[in-house]
Design a protein that fits this description.
Distance between the termini: 30 Å
Largest sheet: 8 strands, mixed
Structural class: alpha/beta
Mean pLDDT: 90
Number of helices: 10
Helix content: 25-40%
Radius of gyration: 19 Å
Strand content: 15-25%
Oligomer: single chain
Low-confidence stretches: 3-40
Length: 320
Amino acid sequence: MKLSVPGRVTATAVAATLLAGTALLTTGTAAGAASAPDVRLAAAPDLPVANVKAHLTQLQSIATANGGNRAHGRTGYRASLDYVKAKLDAAGFTTTIQQFTASSRTGYNLIADWPGGDTNQVIMAGSHLDSVTAGAGINDNGSGSAAVLEIALAVSRAQYQPTKHLRFAWWGAEELGMVGSKYYVNNLSSANRARVKGYLNFDMIGSPNPGYFVYDDDPTIERTFKDYYAGIGVATEIETEGDGRSDHAPFKNVGIPVGGLFSGADYIKTAAQAAKWGGTSGRAFDRCYHSSCDTTANIDDTALDRNSDAAAYAVWELSK
């Protein structure tokens, strides 16, 4: 996350009993009768947090092998992009690498489209893939990047067929001021901008002393996340720590509905927040923010699990 002041935050959840009734109304199948599962109406998956963590392990290994970071214009960034792209290509996505220049270095965005759905109604989920030069950037923002990747792979495993078209994105040079996402949005025609009906942003979702923050931007997206978290009994707060300082901002600035989740950066957790969420009051949500200690040891598994599942839920709900 790119911040001129400390921080960021967001959250959501699931309801499963609706599925059977919805399938019955849609298919007319009587209770007890055998029928093929309707992948279009399938409930959002419970993402295995082990899968998300496996992606983080790979990003850590990439950083370790490339000077300790995955920053814009460095070999670790391109290796990270190649890792994500290979997974998506094998899963049946149509991938595109978008190239730009920032600070005299070449940068890249990775865009992945899932075949099918109404391309006049696009739902996007994205995260920045770059780290700062100081470290591997596993919470900021390996966490969001790994979750978005695992959601995309879950779409493929389920052969999910939503009404709307799904597009996933991994942005370059966010840490230099959302350069990659600005480049993407600025190069969309007005017609293609109008086709994007929602952009979901995931930047830092596994903070080691986590909070559960939801962006208060588009009301429908915000409510989707809040409903998920209410369903699992986790309180949320509105994200204010780094409002407008991540990759949703370029989308919002051109009128595209946005939302997202955040688990906190270097703001200090209050006693009230610790009472609500656990963790340690008087300590930053992420003491390793933009530091060399932002490694795989800098992740709270529960926060990563909850936020990944909330993100998947929102993708499924908003693309129906």
